[in-house]
Amino acid sequence: MTLASDLLLANRLADAAGAAIRPLFRAAFAHEAKPDASPVTEADRAAEDAMRRLLDAEAPRDGIIGEEYGAERPDAVRQWVLDPIDGTVSFMAGRPIFGTLIALLQDGWPILGIIDQPINGERWVGALGQPTLFNGKPARTRTCRALAEATLATTGPQYFTDHDAGHFMALAGKTAHKRMLFGGDCYNYGLLAGGHIDLVVEAGLKLHDFAALVPVVEGAGGTMCDWNGDPLNADSAGHVIALGDPARLEDVIEGLACAH
Fold it and tell me: Which residue blocks in 99-238 are alpha helix, DSSP H?
């Protein structure tokens, strides 16, 4: 398959997921807690099922890694990584800042990614070697003259271990911390790609949480890496930096390292 055909398929996957999610938003739906106490709803499962059925029909040789239904064809060179609702807590609360994440990995490296917000009708599409598009128009990160001027976002302090929280807060103290944002999940990365915030830092993410974000952020002029500055791939541990202005990366890594 060509990159163009992969992008067409990825957009169809997002369409299918959105069609499954929208009727359940701010409506009655079944939900339960997973073994790790995180919630899952019938919308999560319906959206992933819709995407899997499309992939089985259109790309039967490719692997699938999904948050809700696990892995199929795990030895395939090409792997579609699906997070049907990144931000299930926001979805359950009726907040339209969750998103569907769709990534394509080649040999473990993200080459295509989509962040889709099906309620607001917002979609960021990134692909290796191509500019990121937001609803069909180029998206671009913004410059940041100094870390002290950076707007920092993260999903929430409750997702950090005590150790990681110390490092995060050490960094936060060096940013424009009175403008720091909590909440947003994948939506924060779309906002970063569009030049509205400067920095997102998180820990404990899984592959389905971050794989789609990499092409989106990097295609908009930003950079994504782990807390050591290494590129993100299928083997990354889940400590994530997304930065709109790559010139500030050394400052961010230094800030994270200054907890003790």
Answer: 162-172, 187-193, 207-210, 213-219
130-134 and 137-138: which strand pairing?
antiparallel
How far, in Å, are 23, 25, 125, 171, 227 from residue 215 at the CA level? 29, 28, 8, 25, 18
Nearest to 240 by CA among 227, 250, 231, 223: 227
| Average pLDDT, consecutive stretches of 10 residues, N- to C-terminus, the chain (260 residues) | 94 98 95 87 97 97 96 95 97 97 98 98 97 98 97 94 94 93 96 98 97 98 97 97 98 84
State the Cα–Cα distance between residues 127 and 111, nearest whole angstrom.
Answer: 6
Separation between Cα atoms, residue 106 and residue 109, nearest integer Å: 5
Task: Tabulate helix, strand, coil % of the chain (nearest 5).
Answer: 35, 25, 40
Paired strand residues for 105: 79, 110
Q: Rounded distance, CA 179 to CA 14, Å?
A: 32
On the 0-12 / 13-18 / 19+ scale of CB atoms within 10 A, 213 is buried
Element (H, E) at 72: strand 70-72
- DSSP-derived 3-state class of residue 247: helix
The whole model's pTM is what?
0.95
**Which single residue is written with the structure tokens 């899984």?**
206
Token pair 């030895």: residue: 75
